[in-house]
Design a protein that fits this description.
The chain has 197 residues and is of the alpha/beta class. The protein has six helices and seven strands; from the N terminus they run E-H-E-H-E-E-H-H-E-E-E-H-H. It has a single domain (6-196), classed as Maf protein. It has helices at residues 14-23, 48-63, 87-94, 97-111, 172-176, 180-192; strands at residues 6-10, 29-31, 67-76, 82-83, 116-127, 131-143, 158-160. Strands 1, 2, 3, 4, 5, 6 and 7 form a seven-stranded mixed sheet that branches. Helix 3 (87-94) crosses helix 4 (97-111). The longest helix is centred in the first third of the chain and has 16 residues, at 48-63. It is globular and about 55 Å long. The chain binds inosinic acid. Inosinic acid (IMP) binds at residues 13, 43, 70-73, 87-88, 91, 119, 151-155, 167, 179.
C-alpha cells in the first residue's frame, strides 16, 4: 500500500500547526503552506467539517502534497453556539483575540444563561488519488475569566469539564493530549495508520 512520508499541514495558525505536528508521527516530514507561499482559502462552508474539507482540497491542489487541515472554534451555548466557525473572524472583527475574548465574556454575562461551551475541531486528510477522510472532535467545558499565558486563541477563557485550569494555564503537553484536535486526530489515526510509513 502507498505510504505517506510527508504531509502539508494546511493552516497559517502557528498554534494549530504546532499541535498537529506534535500529534503526527515524528518520522513524517511536516510542511507549512507558509514555506510554499500558499495563502489560505476563503472559508465559505457552513460547518467545521465543510470548511476543513474545503481547506484540505485547496491546499492539496496548490501543493500536490498529502494535506491535513483543521477547521476549529469555540461554541458558547448561551450565544447560540457563536463564535463557532467564525472564531477566527471574530478576532479579526474585534481587533484581536484579547478583545474577542472580552466581547465573549461581556455577552455571556449579559445573557446570563450559564457558561457552557465547547471547542470543536474537524480534521480532514486529503490523500493522493483524491481520497478524503474527515473526523470531528469536541471537548465540553465552560467559559472562565481570562487566565493563563500558554497556548493560543481562546485558550485563556476555556476550562474543560473535570479540570480547574483554563487551557492557557495548563502545560502545553497536558492540553495537547486532551483537546478537541487530539480527539479528532485519534479518530482519524485509526483510519490512516495503514498509510503511515
Ligand atoms: P480557523 O479554523 O482557521 O477558522 O480558526 C479557528 C479559530 O478558533 C482560531 O481563531 C483559533 O485561534 C481558535 N481555536 C481553534 N482551536 C483552538 C484552541 O485549541 N485553542 C484556542 N483557540 C482555538
Amino acid at each position: 500500500m502507498y505510504k505517506i512520508n510527508k504531509i502539508l499541514i494546511g493552516t497559517h495558525n502557528k498554534g494549530k500547526f504546532k499541535e498537529i505536528s506534535d500529534l503526527l508521527p515524528k518520522k513524517i516530514e511536516k510542511i507549512s503552506p507558509v514555506e510554499l507561499g500558499i495563502e489560505s482559502p476563503a472559508e465559505t462552508g457552513k460547518t467545521f467539517s465543510e470548511n476543513s474539507l474545503l481547506k484540505a482540497k485547496f491546499f492539496y491542489e496548490k501543493s500536490n502534497l498529502v494535506t491535513l487541515s483543521d477547521d476549529s472554534g469555540l461554541e458558547v451555548e448561551c450565544l447560540n453556539n457563536e463564535p463557532g466557525i467564525y472564531s477566527s473572524r471574530w478576532a479579526d472583527q474585534y481587533g484581536g483575540f484579547d478583545k474577542a475574548m472580552t466581547e465573549i465574556l461581556t455577552k455571556v454575562k449579559k445573557v446570563n444563561k450559564g457558561t457552557k461551551a465547547r471547542f470543536v475541531s474537524s480534521l480532514t486528510i486529503y490523500i493522493d488519488g483524491g481520497k478524503t477522510i474527515t473526523e470531528t472532535g469536541k471537548i465540553e467545558g465552560k467559559i472562565s475569566e481570562k487566565k493563563g499565558l500558554n497556548g493560543f486563541g481562546y485558550d485563556p477563557i476555556f476550562i474543560p469539564n473535570g479540570y480547574t485550569k483554563t487551557f492557557a494555564e495548563m502545560e502545553y503537553k497536558n492540553k495537547l493530549l486532551i483537546d478537541h484536535r487530539f480527539i479528532a486526530y485519534k479518530k482519524l489515526e485509526k483510519k490512516i495508520k495503514n498509510y503511515i510509513l
